[in-house]
Amino acid sequence: MNRFTATSLSLAGLYLIQRQKLGDSRGFLTRLFCVEELRTVGWINSIAQLNHTLTIKRGTLRGLHFQHPPHGEMKLVSCLRGEVWDVAVDLRKGSPTFLQWHAEILSEENNRAMLIPRGFAHGFQTLSDNVEMLYCHTEAYRASFEGGVNFHDKKLEISWPLEVTELSPRDQNLPMLEDRFEGLVI
Ligand SMILES: Cc1cn([C@H]2C[C@H](O)[C@@H](COP(=O)(O)OP(=O)(O)O[C@H]3O[C@H](C)C(=O)[C@H](O)[C@H]3O)O2)c(=O)[nH]c1=O
């Protein structure tokens, strides 16, 4: 790798991607995606969908979302403006870290992204106003395969840094994990 540095995190397959900024007197160039470089950390398909979101109010929470098999997806999540507390949760059936979570601060300043494998739920809380996120997805969006877990799930006990200031009605009503949930077969 030469434009990215990948750090494997505590949950197998989850990586923190540090993007290199090539700066000069005009400003900088940074590579947001590179299939050649990211193949080494498991990104084997092309990008099926690219999403851009703006989240206006600091403290807003989006998630926790995933797509059910067979349309589970790998995501590269980047923060292009502002700062977020980015959370990935291991929902993989049989994973030694099943139901464990990991968070990183992604920001315009630190030029970092999270590479999230299939079988994970993802969510974030904004730590600034006017956050813009860019998502590379290996699968197209399929509303009928959307899944979600409540951000407040007692089985996960995720720490969120701020009081939640905004949450979509869908996210407010996301279910808690049932005792019989064995995980996603990826
Ligand atoms: C995800 C998605 C949504 N949509 C439509 C569905 C709704 O009409 C509207 C907003 O969707 P939603 O409220 O699910 O958006 P987010 O809450 O930002 O969801 C995302 O945020 C969490 C943190 C993620 O990790 C996922 O990438 C994604 O689920 O866009 C699309 O048309 N295409 C898409 O790929």
TrEMBL record:
Pathway connected to this protein: Carbohydrate biosynthesis; dTDP-L-rhamnose biosynthesis
Catalytic reactions of this protein: dTDP-4-dehydro-6-deoxy-alpha-D-glucose = dTDP-4-dehydro-beta-L-rhamnose
UniProt entry tagged with the keyword Transmembrane: no
Keyword terms of this UniProt record: Isomerase
EC numbers, comma separated: 5.1.3.13
Pfam families: dTDP_sugar_isom
InterPro entries from the UniProt entry: RmlC-like, RmlC-like_jellyroll, RmlC_Cupin_sf
Subunit annotation: Homodimer.
Function: Catalyzes the epimerization of the C3' and C5'positions of dTDP-6-deoxy-D-xylo-4-hexulose, forming dTDP-6-deoxy-L-lyxo-4-hexulose.
Family, similarity comment: Belongs to the dTDP-4-dehydrorhamnose 3,5-epimerase family.
Protein known as: dTDP-4-dehydrorhamnose 3,5-epimerase
Source species of the chain: Thalassospira marina
